[in-house]
From TrEMBL:
Keyword Phosphoprotein: no
Residues passing through the membrane, by range: 25-45, 52-70, 76-93, 223-241, 247-273, 557-576, 582-600
A cellular component annotation (GO) from this entry: plasma membrane
GO molecular function, one term: P-type cadmium transporter activity
Domain called P-type ATPase A: residue spans: 105-207
Protein name stated in the entry: Cd(2+)-exporting ATPase
Membrane-protein topology: Multi-pass membrane protein
PANTHER family: CADMIUM/ZINC-TRANSPORTING ATPASE HMA2-RELATED, CADMIUM_ZINC-TRANSPORTING ATPASE HMA4-RELATED
Entry EC number(s): 7.2.2.21
Localization in the cell: Cell membrane
Keywords (A to Z) from UniProt: ATP-binding, Cadmium, Cell membrane, Ion transport, Membrane, Metal-binding, Nucleotide-binding, Translocase, Transmembrane, Transmembrane helix, Transport
């Protein structure tokens, strides 16, 4: 409809000024005015039915008045500007909140139940009862909460705890619905199903947080409550005292807040457009406005502050033939499906070292590692070394302590009772995390808090290398939500940054949820701001951009209101008339548009040279 009005106005202007065809120009403006007035009138009527005097009412009266006195160009332009502003506003305020639906799709739907005779039957997960035995095979999704009564394996619980490293579970250990079995077949005795599981509670938390959220009333709506009646009264008073109907209509036409209704949307469009160009998706003007007020930044660790992938941080060798020892370690770890082992094999391959082909038979020592039958080759943790009386030099002990202090998991290899290799493996810190968080603090963030399901040592190690003010570790999703609620109750404006399913409740509960683009679809759908590039440079740019967008919007409102006030004053003292007033009116609209366009030129923050991850802790 807005496009149709614009085309009619252009046809009218071309016909009038270029082709000199008033018979075409005037009807085109009349049709444009009528088309534009209909939706404006309907909105005004609906508002009146709800006892609200809206800007739409003012526009309607002004358009009808201009139409009556034959000012068809003014009536058409006024309706076009108003509808175009509304269109821009609607486009920027649209939000797609389908996160609950996505979560439901990801929830387990079936389970393989084992009866007393050992028969396996696939049933709907809702038909599983407490106490039933459920079997889960390698690569399968655990459908219920419960405890393992048979089997063992590594469980990927990232969807529940955010823990990056798969956790070894054996008989008696608890498991959660939604987790994945990396390896091993297990039998679970069910303790809770459906909505009562931890995964079900995550869905419930997201639903509650989104249902309780209420959009903030926009400034223009509040302003219109007073502005519209004021202009109407001024117009009536002008007619009463002057008996000049065209003058009164001119008051209403010039009083129409064209620059006001378009000022805020165009600023939002420019700000959001700049963000999109730089890999930042901000879901509407409310998200931009709220984000600009944030003073407390809450972050998940795994996949947010870190890359979420295990890798070797350092390999220390104590012997004469490093390449040969690395080749042997690669061969040994190649027989295991442990995440640490896979990281080590990948690292050694990257060093262009091929695994030893002739490998003796290996035995698994529960909770310690692997060893050859003759005991000459040992690969595992420190307990395995001590149990076999391996000699550990002072240098090797220092290397081990260094890795422990860094929060690494350690893999040791000994040959003939002598320690040859000390390998540290960890989830790596994002290379731009330090720089990005520093920039955020300079931009106005007062407090940075880490909430993670990971262990305290690993969490503190990451926090020590970053400008993080608080660390809370070993948390389940509902505990993260409690912290977010606590911060908001203290009067803080909170933004939560996360990437996983387990982060969705916190993303929805915080004032602003920020999803990393490499995270799950659920986190992205739940978030108000999505970082497609998943970088802290982008996060810092988004925060600065939100602040400047809000400031730009406020500038546009001042320009718009100030222009209308000056126009009305000039009209009353006889300096401004319909033609000159419309010119100033349209010029003010161009000013707010060009002012908003400045937001498109804001570039990402100046980047200082990246700090090496291992140097960050010194900084």
């Amino acid at each position: 409809m807005t496009a149709a009005i614009a085309i009619l106005i252009v046809i009218s202007l071309i016909s009038d000024y270029l082709l000199k065809l008033p018979m075409v120009a005037t009807p085109a403006m009349i049709i444009a005015s009528i088309i534009g007035a209909i939706p404006v009138f309907l909105h005004a009527w609906t508002a009146l039915m709800n006892k609200v005097i809206s800007i739409e009412l003012l526009v309607t009266i002004a358009v009808v008045g201009a139409f009556v006195i034959g000012e068809y160009e003014e009536s058409a332009v006024v309706t076009f500007l108003f509808l175009f502003g509304s269109y821009l506003e609607q486009r920027t305020l649209q939000k797609t909140r389908s996160s609950v639906k996505n979560l439901t799709k990801m929830a387990p739907t079936t389970a393989e139940v084992v009866d007393e005779d050992g028969n396996i039957e696939t049933v709907d997960v809702d038909d599983v009862d407490e106490g039933d035995h459920v079997i889960v095979k390698p690569g399968g999704q655990i459908p219920v909460d419960g405890k393992i009564i048979e089997g063992k394996g590594y469980m990927n619980e990232a969807s529940i705890t955010g823990e990056s490293t798969p956790v070894e579970k054996t008989i008696g250990d608890k498991v959660f619905a939604g987790s994945l079995t990396d390896n091993g077949t297990i039998t679970i005795e069910t303790t809770s199903v459906g909505e009562d599981t931890t995964f079900g509670k995550i869905i419930e938390l997201v639903e509650e947080a989104q249902d309780s959220a209420s959009p903030a009333a926009r400034f223009i709506d509040k302003f219109a409550t007073y502005y519209t009646p004021a202009v109407l009264i001024i117009g009536i008073l002008v007619w009463i005292f002057t008996r000049d109907f065209p003058l009164a209509i001119t008051v209403l036409v010039l009083g129409c807040p064209g620059a006001l209704v378009i000022g805020a949307p165009v600023s939002n469009v420019a700000g959001i457009g700049n963000g999109a160009k730089n890999g930042i998706l901000m879901k509407g003007g409310n998200a931009v406005n709220t984000f600009s007020k944030v003073d407390t930044l809450v972050l998940d660790k795994t996949g947010t502050l870190t890359t979420g992938q295990m890798s070797v941080t350092k390999l220390s060798h104590f012997g004469n033939d490093k390449e040969s020892d690395m080749a042997l370690l690669s061969a040994v770890e190649g027989t295991s499906d442990h995440p640490l082992g896979r990281a080590i094999v990948k690292y050694i391959e990257s060093e262009n070292v091929s695994a030893t082909k002739d490998l003796p038979e290996l035995d698994t020592v529960k909770g310690q590692g692997l060893q050859s039958n003759d005991g000459d080759i040992l690969v595992g943790n420190e307990r395995l070394m001590k149990a076999n009386n391996v000699k550990i030099s002072d240098d090797a002990k220092q290397a081990m302590n260094d890795r422990v202090n860094q929060g690494d998991s350690i893999v040791l290899m000994a040959i003939n009772k002598e320690l040859k290799l000390v390998v540290g493996v960890n989830d790596q810190l994002r290379p731009d995390a330090f720089e990005g968080l520093t920039a955020l603090k300079k931009a106005g963030i007062k407090r940075v808090v880490m909430l993670t399901g990971d262990n305290k040592v690993a969490a503190q190690h990451v926090a020590d290398r970053l400008p993080v003010d608080e660390v809370h570790a070993e948390l389940l999703p509902e505990q993260k939500v409690d912290f977010v609620k606590k911060f908001t109750e203290q009067g803080h404006h909170v933004a939560f940054v996360g990437d996983g399913i387990n982060d969705s409740p916190s993303l929805a509960t915080a004032d602003i949820g920020i999803g990393m683009g490499t995270g799950t679809d659920v986190a992205i759908e739940t978030a108000d701001v999505v970082l497609v590039k998943s970088s802290f440079d982008a996060l810092a740019h988004a925060y600065v951009l939100a602040k400047k967008t809000v400031a730009n919007t406020q500038e546009n409102i001042i320009i718009a209101v100030g222009t209308v006030a000056l126009l009305l004053l000039g009209l009353l003292v006889g300096v401004i008339h319909m033609a000159s007033g419309m010119f100033v009116h349209e010029f003010s609209i161009l000013i707010v548009i060009f002012n908003a366009m400045r937001l498109l030129r804001i570039k990402t923050l100046n980047k200082s040279p990246k700090l090496d991850v291992n140097q960050v802790e010194t900084a």
